[in-house]
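ligand=fe (iii) ion
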Amino acid sequence: MTLNVSAIPLFKDNYAWLLRDGATGTTAVVDPADAGPVEAAIMAAGGRLDLILLTHHHADHVGGTDEIRARFGCPVVGAAADAHRLPKLDRAVKEGDTVAIGDAVGRVIETPGHTMGHIAFYYPDGHALFCGDTLFSLGCGRLLEGRPADMFASLQKFAALPSDTQVYCGHEYTEANARFAITVEPDNAALKMRMAEILALRAAGRSTIPSPLGEEMAANPFMRAPDAVALGRIRAAKDSF
Ligand code: ZN
Ligand code: FE
């Protein structure tokens, strides 16, 4: 079984993700923040949408949800913990719940830190993790609501996934993250290699996302922080970088 994933670039540096189950053609979108480009991408892919998945309540992730729901008449799935501040949910989910896209069955992972109600969706069939603003390539989300211990525990959940998992995050922040990461671990060979790759991709106007989880484990200072205190220190340094 395969889950095909394609990027829908939105605004300056956001990504919505279009997911299509190869076996059934069932299609879902993650974080449809801007209805126009999301609708265009859906129409270009065949005009079918069965499900909307939301990672967290920020406008740059949920903005186009009601318009896309009205256009395609499909249900919206989001965190039960944040039902009060998300667009109207047809299904409110929590840790361990499953969300099927045709034959591809995903699992909900609660990832407090950036916001307290943040969730991620993990699809083993596609080796795909949709993690919104929790984990970025070579970075992590700002701690707008959670404490370092929350984010540390959330990233530890990701660390337990297979290393060939592809990380589909919500923003193209990789180059700026790399410039900070290299100040944390100037001698990290994996980071230096990833840095060179990123600079080449961005110079060519290409996306750096997704990135393999194994590379994040090797090069992302937030994934590599040994404990919550260290993570908090690195996060504070990044905030003022
Ligand atoms: Zn956010
Ligand atoms: Fe965001």
